[in-house]
Amino acid sequence: MEGVPPSYRLAPATALPGLARLLRGLPPSCGPVRLIGVDGHAGSGKSTFCGQLADALGGAPVLHLDDIASHDALFAWTERLLSQVVEPLGRGETAHYTPYDWQARGFGPPRPLPPAPVILVEGVGAGRRALRPHLAHLLWLEFPHEDAWARGQLRDGEQQREFWAGWVPAERRHFADDPSRPFADLLVRPLRRGYEVLPGPGGSPGPDQDVTHGDGPPAMC
User: Fold this and answer.
1) In this structure, are strands 195-199 and 8-10 parallel, antiparallel, or unpaired?
2) N or C: which end of the chain has fewer CB within 10 A?
3) CATH superfamily of 8-203
4) Residue-level pLDDT at 11
5) Sign of dihedral through CA atoms 13, 16, 22, 28?
6) What's the half-sphere exposure (Cβ side, CA atoms, 13 Å) at 150?
């Protein structure tokens, strides 16, 4: 990808601000907003990464797709996202979305999301084909799916065992039908401290773009 070295490490003290500058310098993609998709398998660390990146961006808003999805629509939430968030932002207006309460199993009162220079959209499916035309950049958390799912289940505990039993096959079906990784501008690999960021298949045409059709690096899964 033009302007991105072949490989560089994101360390909290130095390189995250550099990535923030890169994202702020992109052309707006949704009205006045640069929508940045952060996708990856459940449990891969997307929320943690987005929290750090949002801080580096000076407090950029983060839209969690867990607020858009629901028990009845784990992945069938495209129209809600477009109508409640993308279309208003595209007009330069404040979006209002109704966050889902996973405990109460219902949608809450509308929550405002004003236009901002950069908004991070974080969650499984953030790089789906219906959303990509509205993204300024797509980042993929490079973490083996089996390890990510195991970490997610450990995090959520026994009370979510039934949910995960349904989630894993649903995520497999989603990425088989609508993969994100092949279109990622950047791959973000978590390290012990910080991150390594690599140009993604979608941002640097070459052998990887032709070979990688799934949502997991073959050598790691």
Assistant:
1) antiparallel
2) C
3) P-loop containing nucleotide triphosphate hydrolases (3.40.50.300)
4) 52
5) negative
6) 5
Output phi, psi for 190, to 5 deg: -65, 140
Q: Is 47 helix (H, G, I), strand (E, B) or coil?
A: helix
Q: What is the pLDDT of residues 40-72, one digit of tens each?
A: 999 899 999 999 999 999 999 999 999 999 999
From the list 12, 49, 29, the residue with the least C-alpha distance to 139 is 49
pLDDT tens for each residue of 95-148: 999 999 998 999 999 999 999 999 999 999 999 999 999 999 999 999 888 877
Res 216 pLDDT > 80: no
The neighbour count for residue 68, using CB atoms within 10 Å, is 22
24/192 Cα distance (integer angstroms):
27
Q: Which pTM does this prediction carry?
A: 0.86
**H-helix segments, 87-132:** 87-90
Q: In whole angstroms, what is the distance from residue 31 CA to residue 15 CA?
A: 28
Q: Residue 94, exposed/middle/buried by CB under 10 A (0-12, 13-18, 19+)?
A: exposed
Residue ranges covered by each domain of the chain: 8-203
Contact 126, 69 (CB under 8 A): no
The encoded tokens of residue 175 equal 């990425």
